[in-house]
Sequence to fold (345 residues):
Amino acid sequence: MSGQTHDLVIAGSGVAGLSAAVYAARADLDPLVLEGDEPGGQLTLTTDVENFLGFPEGIGGMELIQRGKEQAEQFGANFQHGTIEAADLDGRPHELELSNGEVLRTNALIVATGASARWVGADGEEELMGYGLSTCATCDGAFHRGDDVLVIGGGDSAMEEALFLTKFADSVTVVHRRDELRASEIMADRARENETIEFRWNTELAEIHGSQDTGVTGATLLSHPEGHPTEKAAQGREVETERVDVSGIFYGIGHTPNTGFLDGTGVERDDEGYLRTRSSDDGRPTAETTVEGVFAAGDVADPRYRQAITAAGTGSMAALDAEEYLDALDTQATQSVEASPTLGD
Ligand code: NAP
Fold:
């Protein structure tokens, strides 16, 4: 273990982590940002961001992240490749064990580890992920020029994936388990108006066909007129089964927060794994988790809004709360030095 104790470690380098880093660095907290498994977070997998305040023409997700990192570095934030495997948050300072075995000590921690793409649970997905099955159209769409592809999901992610894929694929079929989209009106309208996109309502993906040699070759779909066909089949009700030939399948069914490394710590999470933050003594909301000195920012604590702009906002909140916490620690330390008798007293 290195002898140094950091004032503040920020886990995650997406928009929340970067925003926290800008605020913390400007407050002279010398934050260390651990970049995580997916440096830059979800925005690096997005094409254009049209709703981030201050960019009327839109801005590429990757560019927004690069600018944010540059801004944080300008104020003195340090970046390190690394992912936290386990954390010991009982004592002071907190200890963080990284995946390379290194152990970091820090007085405060901001968890901005975001959320990762969810998998459907269809047969064959473990084998075929990366072989025609993908959770990121921006990353893998260009492999599907002239192909027929499926997009699974009915939210904004699925619409965004489907729209992006129309640049390459001959046909894009959105497979949704109900008969109504969850996506925002603007995204849903764009998808509905695009002639390359078709919709399969009340339908779910049950199995993916193919191999790592051939890639994805097809899929088995289940349908039921009342929706949620897998549930209906489990109840013994009759569902329609159809095999379709496709060479690409993209999952767009949402995300799961990356909070596994907090297992066994006192940091409270909700049923889906999102971090809970606590209220201050006067009842006001804070960015602090249920463990003192551990703060949450971005999607890891936000099952509801999950926007780049809200992640940036909560990043700044976490940094401001961490600053206040560290100031109080400093004051306590100074008072205890002043109160303790010195030689000659
Ligand atoms: P989401 O809104 O939670 O939508 C997930 C979709 O996947 C839902 O339609 C859901 O079906 C379906 N689904 C979930 N689990 C499934 C399963 N096991 N099998 C089949 N379908 C399943 O997630 P999201 O689309 O990732 O969006 C999350 C947030 O990010 C939203 O606030 C969204 O506005 C935002 N976002 C915005 C943009 C943009 O503005 N450009 C882009 C992406 C995301 P049900 O509808 O039946 O629950």
User: Anything to note?
Assistant: The chain has a mean pLDDT of 94.
